[in-house]
């Protein structure tokens, strides 16, 4: 399964409560069904329900499980098989003594299903994950050896967690690509697909790396290499999240809360890196002057909003730092690049640090000889652990599926990186540019306190068949981000183009029902953008300019001249537009349909 949540526990506390508590903390990542399996004296007690976690909680409250000492739980995001109680995890073997939860996709599921059915196994779901329980049933040895053997038979990406009633009070977990965090006390052991789920009970955890398998006992965790069960020594990591349940406070949802947290997040990413002196210090990321000087090219690897921030940085590296740079969709990079020039720094930009496309691209870049900088909001994440340098975003946990503060904070971080690279390559620092970055948080605060989105714009967008965003230079990536936010949150068809493309095709889409929103935060492009907007308005479009006044139907001014900071402030009305249109259309803001926060399978 994709992007699911895993939670497991062995110990004296109420197993159901711990499992449901952990799953609740993973809920924000997106899922469509949930389940738990508890090991009791009377066999495995299973509760699984399609729908939100509260449906499962109600079921557990109505039908309290018998006392148990071990259990695993799961939130599922459907891939193989529909959203049904039956397809929800955990899955059991034929005899009902082995329970399994799975994140990822088993790519050879069809062949395994055929084999298992032919050997008489009764398969109760349409999932690839259930096959694991039946494979474990057939395998020989203790649970650890059986899981090792089964992992060897599965192709694809996965994190698996299993227990067997006949194998004692322990669980085993194995990882190939999908994340697993583990922690324990003297009398307990916890495992989850993210450290955030462990935070109420633990302050430290270890992370399984790819190709590792773990035997989890209360008070003891043994980690081995999957291939030969050679013991592996693991390093503990702090769990930075508090144990509190995420709370949107006085804001109506997490998206709006995080949107308003942006100024604080920008201050946080600049702290210690951009002080009063006109210089940037990235030594905390390992980027010393020497390391920066050795960079000859930069290759950004990212997806979604993280790619948009990277595209902005590419423009600036090319233009101001005169360092060759490219930003590729991480998902395409592996298939299309067979070489990297010597001296390339690959920069993997990822809020979660777990996006599988970005992780795979990072590994590919390493295999082509590049050193990798991970720019992540989760310093314990897989991308951080596999990177040569780690730039911690420090934006605070982002709960809303649609990114706000992570995107703009990435833009600030990447701007610091661009400035540091430019300086290391003898181009010096631009004091005005750094001053604009320093001032951006306070300007954003004022803007957010006063800005009112014009009702007319919201109404037009809410009933539009589509919305077009345009930009030039850095504003192409801003337009893409505005368009992505609108489509994610409001489900309105939307596209972004470089304004120069308009006449080469997209103009055919424009009529009086289609708002055209032109991002214009870089004064150098005002004249050309103004022409593009006029062309759209001449075809009946409701023409909006954000930044410079391009004399369309509506203008949203930004209280700033410098292009760097205007980019950041320019993102704010676009983010607000997306949520306001979504609310006008009754859409679920924090968890848009079909989407998940952490995309851990290709
Ligand atoms: C959009 C959004 C996604 C992510 C993308 C990459 O609002 O949040 O497009 O930006 O899935 O995720 P990370 O940054 O975690 O690698």
Q: Domains counted in the coordinates: how many?
A: 3
* Ligands, ions, cofactors: fructose -6-phosphate
CATH architecture label name of the largest domain: 4-Layer Sandwich
Helix content: 25-40%
* Terminal Cα span: 11 Å
**CATH fold-level name of the largest domain:** Glutamine Phosphoribosylpyrophosphate, subunit 1, domain 1
Instruction: Please state the oligomeric state of the protein chains shown.
Output: single chain
Major beta sheet summary: 8 strands, antiparallel
Notes on the structure:
The protein is of the alpha/beta class and 602 residues long. It has 18 helices and 24 strands. The protein is globular. The model has no long low-confidence stretch (mean pLDDT 94).
Brief write-up:
With 602 residues, this protein is of the alpha/beta class. It has 18 helices and 24 strands. An 8-stranded antiparallel sheet has the order 3-2-4-1-10-9-11-14, covered by helices on one side. It has a 6-stranded antiparallel sheet with strand order 5-6-7-8-12-13.
Give the arrangement of secondary structure elements.
Blueprint (H helix, E strand, L loop, with lengths): L4 E6 L4 H12 L6 E8 L2 E8 L2 H10 L5 E9 L14 E2 L5 E9 L2 H10 L11 H9 L4 H11 L2 E9 L6 E6 L4 E4 L4 E4 L11 E4 L4 E6 L2 E6 L11 E2 L15 H7 L1 H9 L18 H5 L3 E6 L1 H18 L3 E5 H7 L7 E7 L5 H12 L3 E6 L5 H5 L2 E4 L12 H20 L6 H20 L4 H8 L4 E5 L2 H17 L3 E5 L16 E6 L5 H13 L3 E6 L6 E3 L6 H22 L18
Parallel strand pairs: 15-16, 15-17, 17-18, 18-19, 20-21, 20-22, 22-23, 23-24
Antiparallel strand pairs: 1-4, 1-10, 2-3, 2-4, 5-6, 6-7, 7-8, 8-12, 9-10, 9-11, 11-14, 12-13
Helix pairs in contact: 4-5, 7-13, 7-14, 9-13, 9-16, 10-11, 14-18, 15-18, 16-18
The protein binds fructose -6-phosphate.
């Amino acid at each position: 399964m994709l992007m699911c949540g895993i939670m497991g526990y062995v110990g004296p506390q109420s197993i159901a409560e711990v499992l449901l508590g952990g799953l609740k903390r993973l809920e924000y990542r997106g899922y469509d069904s949930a389940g738990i399996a508890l090991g009791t004296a009377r066999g495995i007690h299973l509760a699984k329900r399609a729908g939100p976690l509260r449906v499962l909680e109600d079921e557990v409250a109505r039908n309290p499980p018998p006392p148990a000492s071990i259990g695993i739980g799961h939130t599922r995001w459907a891939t193989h098989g529909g959203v049904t109680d039956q397809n929800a995890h955990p899955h059991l073997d034929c005899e009902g003594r082995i329970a399994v939860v799975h994140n990822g996709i088993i790519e050879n599921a069809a062949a395994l299903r055929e084999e298992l059915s032919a050997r008489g196994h009764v398969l109760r779901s349409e999932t690839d994950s259930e096959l694991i329980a039946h494979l474990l049933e057939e395998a020989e040895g203790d649970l650890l050896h059986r899981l090792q053997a089964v992992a060897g038979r599965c192709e694809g990406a996965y994190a698996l967690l299993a227990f067997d009633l006949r194998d004692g009070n322990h669980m085993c977990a194995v990882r190939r690509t999908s994340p697993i965090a583990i922690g324990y006390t003297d009398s307990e052991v916890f495992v989850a697909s993210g450290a955030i789920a462990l935070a109420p009970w633990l302050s430290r955890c270890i992370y399984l790396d790819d190709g590792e398998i773990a035997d989890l006992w209360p008070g003891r965790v043994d980690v081995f290499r999957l291939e030969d069960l050679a013991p592996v020594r693991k390093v503990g990591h702090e769990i930075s999240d508090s144990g509190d349940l995420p709370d949107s406070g006085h804001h109506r949802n997490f998206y709006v809360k995080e949107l308003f947290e942006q100024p604080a997040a920008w201050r946080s990413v600049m702290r210690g890196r951009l002080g009063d002196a006109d210089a940037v210090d990235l030594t905390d990321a390992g980027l010393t002057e020497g390391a920066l000087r050795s960079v000859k090219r930069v290759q950004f690897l990212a997806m979604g909003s993280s790619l948009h921030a990277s595209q902005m940085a590419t423009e600036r590296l090319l233009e101001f730092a005169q360092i060759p740079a490219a930003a590729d969709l991480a998902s395409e990079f592996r298939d299309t690049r067979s070489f990297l020039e010597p001296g390339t720094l690959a920069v993997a930009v990822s809020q979660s640090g777990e996006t599988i496309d970005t992780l795979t691209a990072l590994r590919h870049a390493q295999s082509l000889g590049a050193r990798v900088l991970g720019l992540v909001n989760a310093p314990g994440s897989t991308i951080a652990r596999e990177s040569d340098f780690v730039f911690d975003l420090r934006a605070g946990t982002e709960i809303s599926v649609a990114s706000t503060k992570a995107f703009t904070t990435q833009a600030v971080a990447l701007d610091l990186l661009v400035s540091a690279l430019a300086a290391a390559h003898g181009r010096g620092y631009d004091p005005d540019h750094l001053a604009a970055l320093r001032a951006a948080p306070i300007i954003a605060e004022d803007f957010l306190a006063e800005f009112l989105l014009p009702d007319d714009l919201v109404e037009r967008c809410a009933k539009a068949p589509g919305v077009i965003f345009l930009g030039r230079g850095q504003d192409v990536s801003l337009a893409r981000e505005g368009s992505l936010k609108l489509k994610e949150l409001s489900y309105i068809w939307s596209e972004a183009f470089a304004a120069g493309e308009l006449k080469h095709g997209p103009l055919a889409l424009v009529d009086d029902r289609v708002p055209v929103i032109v991002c214009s935060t870089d004064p150098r492009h005002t004249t050309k953008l103004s022409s593009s907007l006029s062309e759209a308005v001449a075809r009946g479009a409701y023409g909006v300019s954000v930044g410079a006044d391009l004399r369309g139907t509506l203008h949203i001014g930004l209280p700033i001249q410098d292009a760097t900071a205007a980019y950041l402030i320019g993102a704010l009305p676009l983010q607000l537009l997306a949520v306001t249109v979504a609310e006008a259309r009754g859409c679920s803001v924090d968890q848009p349909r079909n989407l998940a926060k952490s995309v851990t399978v290709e």
